[in-house]
Amino acid sequence: MPLLRALWFFIQLSIIVVAAVWLLSQRGTVDIVWNEYSVSGNLGIFLLAAVLIAIVAVGLLRIIGAVVNAPEKFSRRRIEKNRRKGFQALTRGFVAIAAGDAKKASGFAREVRKLLPDETGLPLLLEAQAARLRGDEGDARQSFEKLLHDKDAAFFGVRGLLKSSIDAGDPVGALSFARVALDKNPKQPWVLKTVYELEIENKHWHAAMQLLDRARKQGAIEKDRARKDEIALLHVLAGEHRLARDENGEINRLERALKLDPHFVPTVLRLGEIYLEKNKKSKAAALVEKAWKVNPHPDLAALWEKLSPDASADPLRRVRWFEKLAVLRPDSADAQIAVAKAAMDCGLSGEAKAYLTTAEYIRPTARLYRLRADVEEVSTHNAAMVRGWLDKAASAAPDSVWYCTLSGNIYDRWSPVALPHGSFNTIEWGIPVGGAKIVSRSLDNGADLDPLMIETY
Fold first, then answer.
1. Can you name the CATH fold of 308-397?
2. What residues does each domain of the chain span?
3. For 221-249, what is each residue's pLDDT tens digit?
């Protein structure tokens, strides 16, 4: 590189020398007359002098321009230097936020505000995040509100205010900001999910139902979870129709839920009870049989009992009615227990013991052993045998129950909303892990919903 620069310099110098020699070698005379003054000279010298004068003039003009523009250039360079330092402080501030260092983050936020006084977006976001990190939610909220006026960074403000409202336990305010976020980003999965969950929390069931399909299509909610939530929402809406004494509306909602899952016990129970009230026993029995084949459940056995034919003349008819369940699912302990209970009601202790023995082989549970103790007490009155079965019940595997996966509370029936905490669609059939609390009140598919809990939107 140095060699090339030297070569280029000599080339330029050679060009200048050749040009000067060429100018001096030009023949001719130049006469300049001004009033009584007259000047004569060689043409070459005149041309060379003119070129030199032009070069000097251009140089003087550049010097004057540089002097005149010096303050502006200095100011511009200072601004550019401040911007570089400001964005460097901005980066370091966000690093401090990520590290959880509130003191450094706040210091960098002040430095950025000093170096970049006219910037709004990212500096305001840094101020808000630093304020939140040090626990000053008021300042954070003010910064997020200022961000709303920056069209390029407004979404940061919306998201910050949304989180602030959620943290403050303000679902109504959170929902309003979430809807703004959804308007700005209608296909963003986390926004869809947040709005959906807030619609649920605010008990805007119709709005949640409308949004659920969008959330599912955008992958914001897993398909299986969305299907279960849709069923639960249909039960809530069916409960609204029931409170309004709109039986057709309730049936329509429940039948839609049944199409989504024909084996979901609460849907089968409620529809079966409606059909029973309308004296459509065969239709209700068909529902139970279809569900029982896939999902044998004690609650279905209770409905099956309501559907049983009159057995006053022939008690064995009742046993045969329950034996249908055992035929449908011979591998189900609940089916064997259902038949055993029917046999007990008919005074057939031997048959009851036989079915309970089969159930014990399939799945021994506390409920089964308690029933065995009841049979023993009725048939033999043998206190020792009864105590033996009760001891087994105490140490046996627990029975499945309806329980809230969020709180562990146990319910006597399923409902779409778990009281008293109000979580949505968290009651499942199974064995709760850890301690559990029995909740006496439960929702019957919306029938016992407090009217204040049902709001339309």
1. 1.25.40
2. 2-99, 308-397
3. 999 999 999 999 999 999 999 999 999 99
